[in-house]
Amino acid sequence: MLAAGLALLTSICYGVSNFVGPALSRDLPFYSVLIAGQFVAFCVSGVLVAAGDVPLPETTELAAAGAAGLGNAWGLIAFYRAAAVGPLSVITPIGSLAASVPVAAGVAAGEALGVVKGAGLVLALGGVALVARRQGGPPTGGGDRRAAVAWALSSTLGFGLFLTFMAPASEGGVLWAVMLSRGGLLVALAVVVWTSRAPLRAPLRTLPRLAVPGVLLFAGTLAYSAATREGDLSVVSVLGCLFPLVTVGLAFAFLGERLSRSQLLGAAGALIGSVLLSLRG
Questions:
Q1: How much is the mean pLDDT over the chain?
Q2: Res 141: pLDDT
Q3: Virtual torsion, Cα 161, 80, 238, 216, nearest 10 deg
């Protein structure tokens, strides 16, 4: 029960973050929203590492954590870009395809795909095709659907790299992996902001709000890590992949987003496929 509860908490944290972050970025500087929350998460994880007196990981694990941070930065930037031009009810199920990247990496390394993961891949890709398909009439939620789908697919690759590298990074300790990956993420964001001269200024009173998405992602990551130690990984991974339902539900309730029947079917296929891909063994 504890493992299931922690895994569901992961989905809630991730799902709410994916809704709140893009909503904040509509009124406040885009990179301010990303950096504020991740900086708080980095500081909190640093305090936990120091309090726990966790030994420093090996060089390979440090490098993996840094690579995970770069992938996470890529995924977050692309996801927020997608949310700026398209409806969350479309881009969130597409983003859940990130689970396919570690699977592809495993297959490339010689692992067998298996019937379940093969079916998951077919379902996920078919679902994305249905969700992204142009419908008659005005686009759901407004915006540029083609650009939104392209950015969402790009975010999938970034988040997939994050998932791929977090596994070896966590071998040196989850807290170290979380802290160092957040450090790599912040470095990547700083470079992007510096080179693009993107605006960062935001009123001081908004800083607590800006930190919310990053703190939720951090809490979700810790909850998932704890869940994997408490229960069956096959169950935990499924429950931890339900975050798109939370984001889409919030978009439905608060933004009035609606999908056609074929898009609903595609979103369900993408989500179920991603859950199957996340199964271990």
A1: 84
A2: 46
A3: 100
Q: Residue 119 pLDDT > 90, yes or no?
A: no
Give the model's pLDDT for residue 280: 62
Secondary structure of the chain in HEC code, one letter for each residue: CHHHHHHHHHHHHHHHHHHHHHHHHCCCCHHHHHHHHHHHHHHHHHHHHHHHCCCCCCHHHHHHHHHHHHHHHHHHHHHHHHHHHCCHHHHHHHHHHHHHHHHHHHHHCCCCCCHHHHHHHHHHHHHHHHHHCCCCCCCCCCCCHHHHHHHHHHHHHHHHHHHHHHHHHHHHCHHHHHHHHHHHHHHHHHHHHHHHCCCCCCCHHHHHHHHHHHHHHHHHHHHHHHHHHHCCHHHHHHHCCCHHHHHHHHHHHHCCCCCCHHHHHHHHHHHHHHHHHHCCC
Q: Count Cβ atoms below 10 Å from residue 279 Cβ, excluding itself.
A: 18
Rounded-to-integer distance, Cα 67 and Cα 61, Å: 10
Return the domain boundaries, the chain: 2-278
pLDDT in tens, 196-249: 888 888 887 888 899 999 899 889 888 887 887 777 756 676 777 788 889 988
pLDDT at position 172, please?
80
Identity at 91, one-letter amino acid code:
I
